[in-house]
Design brief:
Elements lengths: L15 H17 L8 H15 L3 H14 L4 H13 L3 H14 L4 H13 L3 H14 L4 H13 L3 H14 L4 H14 L2 H12 L8 H14 L2 H14 L3 H13 L3 H14 L4 H13 L3 H14 L4 H12 L10 H9 L4 H12 L8 H14 L4 H13 L3 H14 L4 H13 L3 H30 L7
Helix pairs in contact: 1-2, 1-4, 2-3, 3-4, 4-5, 5-6, 6-7, 6-8, 7-8, 8-9, 8-10, 9-10, 10-11, 10-12, 11-12, 12-13, 13-14, 14-15, 14-16, 15-16, 16-17, 17-18, 18-20, 19-20, 20-21, 20-22, 21-22, 22-23, 23-24, 24-25
Length: 475
């Protein structure tokens, strides 16, 4: 299951990298081009001093001078660019934006002006405008890694991962040691959504040195490998992420991966460990229950789902999982299934769980069968959903318990009409026909049972896929 991902901001956080770092190049430009006709020699000297202070990280000392000079010399690109960048670096984006816009008008061929303006717009959520400015910056200077990285981030924000990946690949090629850039590139490739692009994402992440790999990096690598079909590699990354940071998110992602690939005992172990660590996160209890269910440990599954339903009596997910587990107990067993009866009484319109409640009654020891109660539940289920084949089938099972063969045949015919490949229904119908002396029809039903029985065996896969959907639902 893909976990929530955060596009790692390389350039806007901290903002100093882009603006202060970029202004190092600008300072030399300012020293060469401060001979603006309207700027006095004294003010040019003040500008040099302010730019040097800003480059040295002394923004508080530089700001008053830059503000004064940009006010008195509105045509000075250097003063406006530096002041706008200073405000942006300090987080005052609303103050920075008009100044940076003015600087970009003053120097339309300056890549830095468009790069800084685009970064500020991106920070303010003006994404489309940011893309325009950042495209200008990267066109003027194709080797501006910070601008390319910000362009990639902006394109991701407007759901254009393929274009973002192209920009980020160029940025990463210019800064090959930058692990965050590689992560962002891998994230963009993963978001393209194809196995091929995910495989590329995994390759990018593999190029990051082990010492630089964080749990977040491993988590993305795990999802990328999973989508690419590299399941053993995915598991290693899920495990690495959980070992580095045994958070709720990382442990749950690992557990889901183990369940997805039918590694039941290990999935149960991880789920129980995580439940102790995060007792309020019920999704771990659900995962443990599903592990027990899949491993045919139905009594354990019932214990888990029954406790969950007691704590949240109207949760239909818990009721469904409890009902499934109870329905697979051997006849004569129904320990812990009381909660499914109670849920069915509270929710008579839920055909599925009402049918499960009736099945639980039918699985009780013969002397405890309350067939009238089971019949009432099944009648309610059929009334709630006349197209639910399982309710008709279970009604037939009940009728056969009562030796009402003709009535059971009618119910089974209805179940088969709704689900023609219902192998067990064909078998039960053959028995009903045999008792009704319809031997030729009985033989036909036996043949159909044999035809569909192999498909029924294969339905274990489908049954597990159905249950797996529950672990992706919020608990």
């Amino acid at each position: 299951m893909p976990s929530p991902r955060i596009f790692r901001t390389v350039l806007l956080l901290p903002f100093w990298f882009l603006f202060a770092g970029a202004l190092m190049a600008q300072t030399s430009t300012a020293k060469k081009h401060t001979s603006t006709p309207t700027m006095s020699q004294q003010d040019q000297t003040r500008l040099h001093i302010a730019l040097d202070a800003y480059d040295a990280g002394q923004s508080a000392q530089a700001e008053p001078t830059l503000r004064d000079l940009s006010t008195r010399y509105p045509s000075s690109y250097e003063a406006n660019e530096a002041l706008g960048s200073l405000y942006a670096e300090s987080g005052a984006m609303e103050k920075a934006l008009p100044i940076l816009q003015h600087a970009a008008v003053l120097a339309p061929r300056q890549a830095l002006a468009h790069a800084n303006l685009g970064a500020a717009m991106l920070k303010l959520g003006k994404t489309q405008e940011a893309i325009v400015e950042l495209r200008k910056a990267t066109s003027l200077d194709p080797k501006n890694s910070p601008a390319l990285s910000n362009l990639g981030q902006a394109l991701m924000a407007v759901s254009k991962p393929a274009e973002a990946a192209a920009a980020l690949a160029s940025a990463s090629a210019l800064a090959p040691q930058d692990a965050d850039l590689k992560y962002n590139l891998a994230f963009a490739l993963y978001e393209i959504g194809t196995p091929a692009s995910s495989a590329k994402a995994a390759v990018v992440l593999t190029s990051i040195p082990s010492a630089a790999m964080t749990d977040q990096f491993h988590a993305l690598a795990a999802d990328a490998e999973e989508r690419a079909g590299h399941f053993s590699e995915a598991l290693k990354h899920f495990q690495a992420a959980a070992q580095m940071n045994p958070s709720d998110t990382n442990l749950y992602a690992l557990d889901v991966e183990l369940l997805r690939h039918w590694t039941w005992p290990e999935a149960i172990r991880v789920a129980n460990f995580a439940s102790e660590r995060f007792p309020t996160s019920t999704h771990f209890q659900v995962a443990a229950g599903i592990g027990y269910y899949a491993n045919s440990e139905y009594k354990q599954a019932i214990r888990v789902f029954s406790q969950l339903l007691q704590s949240d009596p109207n949760n239909s997910t818990y009721a469904d999982l409890l009902g499934r587990s109870c329905s697979l107990l051997a006849e004569g067993e129904n320990a812990g299934c009381t909660e499914i009866y109670r849920f069915a009484e509270r929710h008579p319109g839920n055909a599925v769980t009402t049918t499960y409640a009736a099945i639980a009654i039918l699985h009780e020891p013969t002397e405890k069968h309350d067939l009238d109660k089971a019949a009432a539940l099944l009648s309610a289920a059929i009334a709630a959903d006349p197209k639910y084949a399982d309710a008709w089938f279970q009604m037939a099972v009940l009728e056969q318990t009562r030796l009402h063969w003709k009535e059971s045949a009618s119910d089974l015919e209805q179940a088969i009409a709704l689900r023609p490949d219902f192998a067990e229904a064909h078998y039960r119908l053959s028995r009903a026909y045999a008792h009704m002396n319809r031997r030729e029809d009985a033989q036909k039903e036996i043949a159909l049972h044999q035809t569909y029985s192999q498909k029924s065996k294969d339905s274990l896969n489908a049954r597990m896929q159905e249950v797996m959907t529950f672990i992706l639902k919020p608990s």
